[in-house]
């Protein structure tokens, strides 16, 4: 069996909170997609996450991760539920989550509360765009703070989702398949 190129991210090893919503029914499909909640990233993304954690800690914040590596099979389930390329990458293009180089996350204050980002994670609405006009000033400030942390760590963003960050150049990498012996099982 081949060794997985993916690295495990845990609260103890990476000083993050983890709430992998696709292992629960608290996601846009309303049902679990993963049977097990494993937070995984490719080594370059894991290194950039460590930089992001350090930047957030420098001003008293921490990071909460909602999703990281996503098997192509899970991506297909999301596409089947919401075939909208604004929010869900079709399998022929592939998601950078399925390359192990993307994260869905937010910032958390010293009391453990998520910063108000104006919409929830997985809200597939125009208001989820990073710079959507008309959002309250504090929401724009929080989104810009998250953007600064993640860009400072080497990630880039996509326009439509304030929570999604990925390594530049990820599209050049192959999708990482998740067969039966893989780290995540699908429901």
Describe this protein with a few key phrases.
single chain; 187 residues; alpha+beta; Muramoyl-pentapeptide Carboxypeptidase, domain 2; 5-stranded mixed sheet; two-stranded antiparallel ribbon; 4 helices; 7 strands; 24% helix; 14% strand; globular; D-Ala-D-Ala dipeptidase activity; Zn_M74/Hedgehog-like; metal-binding; zinc
CATH structural architecture: 2-Layer Sandwich
The proportion of residues in beta strands is: 5-15%
Largest sheet: 5 strands, mixed
Enumerate the strands of the largest sheet in spatial order, edge to edge or round the barrel.
Answer: 2-4-5-7-6
Overall residue-averaged pLDDT value: 91
| Total individual domains | 1
Pfam families: Peptidase_M15
Cofactor: Zn(2+)
InterPro entries: A_A_dipeptidase, Zn_M74/Hedgehog-like
GO molecular function: D-Ala-D-Ala dipeptidase activity; metallopeptidase activity; zinc ion binding
């Amino acid at each position: 069996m081949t060794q997985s190129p993916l690295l495990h991210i845990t609260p103890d090893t990476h000083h993050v909170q983890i709430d992998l919503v696709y292992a629960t029914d608290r996601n846009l499909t309303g049902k679990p997609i993963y049977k097990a909640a494993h937070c995984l990233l490719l080594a370059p993304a894991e290194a950039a996450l460590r930089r992001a954690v350090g930047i957030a800690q420098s001003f008293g914040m921490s990071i909460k991760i909602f999703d990281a590596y996503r098997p192509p099979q899970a991506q297909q389930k999301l596409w089947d539920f919401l075939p909208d390329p604004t929010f869900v990458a079709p399998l022929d293009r592939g998601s950078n989550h399925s390359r192990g180089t993307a994260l869905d996350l937010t910032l958390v204050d010293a009391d453990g509360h998520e910063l108000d980002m104006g919409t929830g994670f997985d809200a597939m609405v125009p208001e989820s765009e990073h710079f959507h006009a008309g959002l309250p000033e504090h929401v724009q400030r929080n989104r810009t703070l998250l953007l600064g942390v993640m860009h400072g760590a080497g990630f880039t963003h996509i326009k439509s989702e304030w929570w999604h960050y990925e390594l530049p150049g990820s599209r050049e990498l192959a999708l990482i398949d998740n067969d039966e012996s893989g780290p995540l099982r699908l429901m």
